[in-house]
Amino acid sequence: MAQEQDFEFNVPPQFEKVTKNIRIIIIGLIVLFLGFTTFFTVDPEEVGIVVRLGKYVKTVEPGLNYKIPLIDQVEKVPVERQLKQEFGYRTVSTGVQTQYQKAGYEDESLMLTGDLNLADVEWVVQYRINDPYSYLFKVRNAESTLSDISEAAMRQIVGDRTVNEVLTVGRAEVAIEARNLMQSLVSEYELGITIEQVVLQDINPPNPVKPSFNAVNEAQQERETLINQAKADYNRVIPRARGQAEATIQKAEGYASERVNNAQGEVSRFNDLYAEYIKAPEVTKQRIFLETMEEIIPKMGKKIITDESGSNVLPLLQMQIDGTGSSSSQNNNGGN
To answer: How far from the centroid of its chain's Cα atoms is residue 15's Cα?
Structure first.
């Protein structure tokens, strides 16, 4: 006959204390876990998208919010922050001296222009997220889709222009048209993104042809310089020559008018004189003689006037040779 024996285990007080502490620790951890997984904070430049078992539930504003632990998930979307995508290069580090990396991204920037030349185009797309729901749920990967859209749009715009337009005068127009085309495609795909600006960075010919291309550009710039210098010389010389020619013509016209007017005056004077001569020939002839002598005699200098016999000519000539003005004056008076 089996004897039943009751075994009683006496639990030490220390063990009970440890067990009780473990329970408190576990409950505390659970409370902390629930606290951390229930409440969350959204930064001022973000909004929170709450997803419950993969389904959109609500959009929460910045601040302290809550969700169901282990069931709800939160995606934070920076709606107030300006984002950017770089093409043809990547920024390695920012600061006083920003460092960039070109290697490995040539396929993004190398594209064909409308005149069948190659151009290495680097650009930046700056954008904002204006519809978080569309950004997260309308497309599988909005960032990758935006990258594809940007590259396709830039290749299309560059492909419609010559390489000189892309490198020089057409840069601003290329950036504006690329931005408009990107925004149109983004809106069509419902990415929930607003393209704010497309900035063209360096645009260069490919490295193998860069020396030749630079030589062509230098020749074109030299040609433009010579053309501008020629235009400057033309604008300086031609107006002056035209002014001199105009002045000469006006001077000749004035001289011609003066001569014609003088001739006409002399003709009129002669006609008037002739009309008087017809009326009284002897009187007019005498008046003309006297007027002519009155005009000629003052120009003759010293004068000797004798009578008709001319008996006193030699003394007068001797006095004229001596050059005594007083004697000549007296002889002239005596002659009169």
So the answer is: 85
Average pLDDT over residues 236-243: 89
pLDDT digits 0-9 by tens, 193-207 = 999 999 998 888 877
Using CA atoms, how far apart are residues 38 and 84, in angstroms rounded to an integer? 33
Is residue 205 within 8 A of residue 213, CB to CB? The reply is yes
> What are 11-33's pLDDT values in tens digits?
566 666 667 677 777 877 777 77
Give the chain as a 3 state SS string. CCCCCCCCCCCCHHHHHHHHHHHHHHHHHHHHHHHHHHEEEECCCCEEEEEECCEEEEEECCEEEECCCCCEEEEEECCCCCEEEEECCEEEECCCCCEEECCCCHHHHEEECCCCCEEEEEEEEEEEECCHHHHHHCCCCHHHHHHHHHHHHHHHHHHCCCHHHHHCCCHHHHHHHHHHHHHHHHHHHCCCEEEEEEEEEEEECCHHHHHHHHHHHHHHHHHHHHHHHHHHHHHHHHHHHHHHHHHHHHHHHHHHHHHHHHHHHHHHHHHHHHHHHHHCHHHHHHHHHHHHHHHHHHHCCCCCCCCCCCCCHHHHHHHHHHCCHHHHHHHHHHHC
The pTM assigned to this predicted structure is 0.58
Q: At 219, list the tokens.
A: 């020749």
Query: Is 64 in contact with 39 (CB distance < 8 Å)?
Result: yes
The stretch 177-182 carries a mean pLDDT of: 96
Helices 281-296 and 210-279: crossing angle in degrees, nearest 10, is 130
Query: So what's the pLDDT on residue 336?
Result: 38
